[in-house]
Structure to design on (251 residues):
């Protein structure tokens, strides 16, 4: 049986880790390199860094941060935010990132998924999808959740898999930061319809939510931010509980 992964997510703004609720009301959560090292030491399986402002000026800061993180941690990490070219991905991977996450840029130009998979391999390409349930239908949103589209979550997920994505990182905007649990129904459907790993994001508030997303949601990995950043759920405690519930994790 494949082990389930626990992935802290660090949203980066101006070189600092921040966290909000429903994508707004950001507060400072610490230095990203220090947090990364801490999480690696505590038993996180992977890390995700998202440059949520991703302006051109921030790009140099991000590259420098990636270099420092690579020096400090021995677990895989993914970097996302404002990535729209093979050249940018090349620079991130050369600085030490293991994977990249693309979101809005993939929707605007779906061929980018093919280009990255062809150049670097599917294992490096994570397609992040921010979606919101509107009148019972899951619609993809862009630009950090600020721009709604008419694109269906499940159709888009299938398309990017066909184009070469190695993983889907699905964030439910309805659940993000609420600590009311993951969008397990949608996650289970994604898992049933796709053949690549699905990372659950948005809604972690307690240990039971992680148990539920691995069982009811059929997720391959669970990503969270504030419950880890603010010490509400220590990773060793979480993994012990998962193990006790017959969920295979790396201890």
């Amino acid at each position: 049986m494949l082990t389930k992964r626990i992935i802290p997510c660090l949203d980066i703004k101006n070189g600092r880790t921040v966290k909000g609720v429903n994508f707004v009301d950001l507060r400072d959560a610490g230095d990203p390199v220090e947090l990364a090292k801490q999480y690696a030491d505590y038993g996180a399986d992977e890390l995700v860094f998202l440059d949520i402002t991703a302006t051109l000026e921030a790009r140099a800061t991000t590259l420098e941060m990636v270099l420092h993180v690579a020096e400090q941690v021995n677990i895989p990490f993914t970097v996302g935010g404002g990535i729209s070219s093979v050249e940018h991905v090349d620079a991130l991977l050369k600085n030490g990132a293991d994977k990249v996450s693309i979101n809005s840029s993939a929707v605007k130009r779906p061929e980018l998924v093919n280009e990255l998979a062809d150049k670097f391999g599917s294992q490096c390409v994570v397609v992040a999808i921010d979606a919101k349930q509107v009148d019972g239908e899951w619609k993809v949103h862009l630009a950090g959740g600020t721009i709604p589209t008419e694109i269906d979550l499940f159709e888009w997920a299938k398309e990017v898999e066909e184009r070469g994505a190695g993983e889907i990182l699905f964030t439910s905007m309805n659940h993000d930061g609420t600590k009311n649990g993951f969008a397990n129904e949608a996650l289970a459907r994604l898992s049933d319809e796709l053949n690549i790993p699905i990372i659950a994001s948005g809604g972690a508030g307690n240990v039971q939510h992680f148990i539920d997303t691995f069982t009811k949601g059929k997720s391959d990995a669970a990503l969270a931010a504030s419950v880890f950043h603010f010490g509400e759920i220590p990773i060793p405690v979480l993994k012990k509980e998962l193990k006790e519930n017959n969920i295979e994790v790396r201890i």
Summary: The longest helix spans residues 56-72.
